[in-house]
Automatic annotation (TrEMBL):
This is Pyridoxal phosphate homeostasis protein. The keyword Transferase does not apply. Pfam families: Ala_racemase_N. Residues 14-229 form the Alanine racemase N-terminal domain. Keywords: Pyridoxal phosphate. The modification N6-(pyridoxal phosphate)lysine is found at residue 43. It comes from Nonomuraea longicatena.
Amino acid sequence: MGSGVDRTAEIGANLKAVEARIAAACQAAGRGRAEVTLVAVTKTYPAEDVRILAGLGVRDVGENRDQEAAVKARECAGLPLRWHFVGQLQTNKVRSVVAYADVIHSVDRPRLAEAISREAVRAGREVTCLLQVALDDDPGRGGVRPADLPALADAVAAAGGLVLGGVMAVAPLGEEPGKAFARLAEISRSVRERHPGAAMVSAGMSGDLSEAVACGATHVRIGTALLGRRKPFVR
């Protein structure tokens, strides 16, 4: 019993520290705290941690592997949570992901958008899609090239069962995050010229959330700073 109490205290302290960082970043950027949503990334951590976070007032939870996320979402079905799928998504996992995800952050190709649309319509759900933008030339990390973004945005906006929410990116390895996120802010502006409602900007993680908030991020994806260093995932 004691360990559960300890874990609640640990996560509570971490959440307080993360909240203080977000608040400070918002203040420095001249933004209101309500403009930034904390997405708690709970990959590799148990459903019990999700329940603790929910009890502490967290409402947005992110996962990046369907085989783990689907089980966790079922176990936490009674909680008032909004589930975000933040990892690379293969088309063969789309049906499972659409069953629980309210927001998918990693839409980067027309075929994936079509698959999500088909399953969302079939399930009678509306899924918010963020377009993952490649800020570097590493194909392994996913993302649509900026030149191909307008066509993908139009396709998602027109697809049944989908809402074009905005854009998402990961800061490239070895680049100053602020510079990368400034590029993403420009890309977001260009998307909003054609699709004014696509105002979400998912950027920033535990190490670079301040730079992301300074550049207009509306959603920060925080795992390590909330829950601690991850253990390797074991199948």
